[in-house]
Automatic annotation (TrEMBL):
One of its GO terms (biological process) is adenine biosynthetic process. This is Phosphoribosylformylglycinamidine cyclo-ligase. SUPFAM superfamilies: PurM C-terminal domain-like (SSF56042), PurM N-terminal domain-like (SSF55326). Belongs to the AIR synthase family. It comes from uncultured Thermomicrobiales bacterium. NCBIfam families: purM. CDD domains: PurM (cd02196). Residues 174-329 form the PurM-like C-terminal domain. Keywords: ATP-binding, Cytoplasm, Ligase, Nucleotide-binding, Purine biosynthesis.
Length: 345
C-alpha cells in the first residue's frame, strides 16, 4: 500500500512543525492579532490605528534569492529569516510605513523540523525586533521540485502610514545632498554573480581581509533601516532609496523627481572587503559591480542642504555621497571618481 510518505511528503513532521511554529509566532504577537497559527487566514485588527486620519496600507513581497544556496551548503539557516524580513521592511519603510504584520512562505525538498524551526525562528525574531506580528505562513514539502537539501523562502509584509505623512518633507530638489548608510555586506542581492566569483570551495576559507571565512561574510544578514529612516525623516530627509537588485543606478532614480539627476562620488566611501574580493576573484568590472551590488551603501537618503547637519546628527553613520543637479539629458545618475574597491574599468 502506497502512502504519502512514500512520495516524499511527511505529514507527521508537518504536525510537529506546526506545533513548534505556533510557539515561535506567539512571541511576535500583540492584541491586534485575532487568529492563531492553524487558522485558514490570519486576522489583524486595525483598531489600534484608528487615530490616523487617512490610513494607507503599504505592502511588499520578496525573497532572498540564491543566498539560500550558501546557507544550505554551510548548514546555517538562522540568519535567512532576518534577511527576508529586513528586506521587506525596508521596502515599505522608505515610503514612511510602519510594519503591521508579516507572512512567510517556505518550500523545501524535505521539511526537516530543525531546519524549518531555524528558518522561521529567524523570521519571528526579526519581526519581534521590528514590532511586527508574524501573522501566519506556509511550509510546503515538495521533493519533486527541489533537489535534496534545496529550499526557498519568501515573505510578505503589510504596513501602514497616514496619507498626510507621505512625502511630508517635499520632493527632491537641485542641490539636495545624497546621504548613504552603510550596508552589512551583499544583503540579499547579487548572489548568483558572487557564487560564480567565489565558488563553494572557497566558503570555508578564512580570509584575512574579511576577518572571517568567505562563507560567513556571504551570510552577513541584510540590515534593517527601520529606525534610521524614522530618525532621518524627523530630521528632514525628503526621500529614501533602498539599494537592492540593480544597485544605486537602478534604485536611486526611482525616488527622484523628473527634473533632477544624481551625481555620486565614488571616493566618498570605501566598500566592505567582500566586494573587492568578488571583483578581483571574478574579474568583475567596476560598472558591473555597481549595477549588481549595493557596493557598501544599503540606503540613500535625499536631504535638503539646510537639513544636512541635523540629519548627520540624527544618524551619525550617514555620510554624504553626492548631490542632485538639474537634469540635462536622459541620464538620471552619474558616478564620478575611480572604482576603488568595486572592480576595474
Amino acid at each position: 500500500m502506497t502512502t504519502y510518505a512514500d512520495s516524499g511528503v511527511h505529514l507527521g513532521d508537518a504536525r510537529a512543525i506546526t506545533d513548534r511554529l505556533a510557539a515561535i509566532a506567539a512571541r511576535t504577537r500583540g492584541a491586534s492579532v485575532l487568529a492563531d497559527v492553524g487558522a485558514f487566514g490570519g486576522m489583524f485588527s486595525l483598531g489600534a490605528w484608528g487615530q490616523l486620519k487617512e490610513p494607507v496600507l503599504v505592502a511588499s513581497t520578496d525573497g532572498v534569492g540564491t543566498k539560500v544556496m550558501v546557507a544550505a551548503a554551510l548548514g546555517r539557516y538562522d540568519t535567512l529569516g532576518h534577511d527576508l524580513v529586513n528586506h521587506c521592511l525596508n521596502d515599505i519603510a522608505v515610503q514612511g510605513a510602519r510594519p503591521l504584520f508579516f507572512l512567510d512562505y517556505l518550500a523545501l525538498h524535505r521539511a526537516d523540523p530543525d531546519v524549518v524551526t531555524a528558518l522561521v525562528g529567524g523570521v519571528a525574531e526579526a519581526c519581534r525586533l521590528a514590532g511586527c506580528a508574524l501573522l501566519g505562513g506556509e511550509t510546503a514539502e515538495m521533493p519533486d521540485v527541489y533537489a535534496p537539501g534545496g529550499f526557498d523562502i519568501a515573505g510578505f509584509v503589510v504596513g501602514i502610514v497616514d496619507r498626510a505623512e507621505i512625502g511630508r518633507n517635499g520632493e527632491p530638489e537641485v542641490e539636495d545632498f545624497l546621504v548613504g548608510l552603510p550596508s552589512s555586506g551583499l544583503h540579499t542581492n547579487g548572489y548568483s554573480l558572487a557564487r560564480r566569483a567565489l565558488p563553494p570551495v572557497t566558503w570555508d576559507r578564512y580570509e584575512p581581509s574579511l576577518g572571517t571565512t568567505v562563507g560567513e561574510a556571504l551570510l552577513a544578514p541584510h540590515r534593517s533601516y527601520l529606525d534610521e529612516i524614522r530618525s532621518l525623516t524627523d530630521a528632514g530627509a525628503r526621500a529614501f532609496a533602498h539599494i537592492t537588485g540593480g544597485g544605486i543606478p537602478e534604485n536611486l532614480p526611482r525616488v527622484l523627481s523628473p527634473t533632477v539627476a544624481a551625481v555620486i562620488h565614488r571616493h566618498s566611501w570605501e566598500p566592505p572587503a567582500i566586494f573587492r574580493l568578488i571583483a578581483e576573484a571574478g574579474a568583475v568590472a567596476g560598472d558591473e559591480m555597481e549595477r549588481v551590488f549595493n557596493v557598501g551603501i544599503g540606503l540613500v537618503a535625499v536631504v535638503p542642504s539646510d537639513r544636512l547637519d541635523a540629519v548627520l546628527a540624527a544618524v551619525p553613520e550617514g555620510q554624504p555621497i553626492g548631490r542632485l543637479v538639474e537634469r540635462q539629458s536622459d541620464e538620471r545618475l552619474r558616478f564620478v571618481g575611480e572604482h576603488a574597491g568595486r572592480g576595474t574599468g
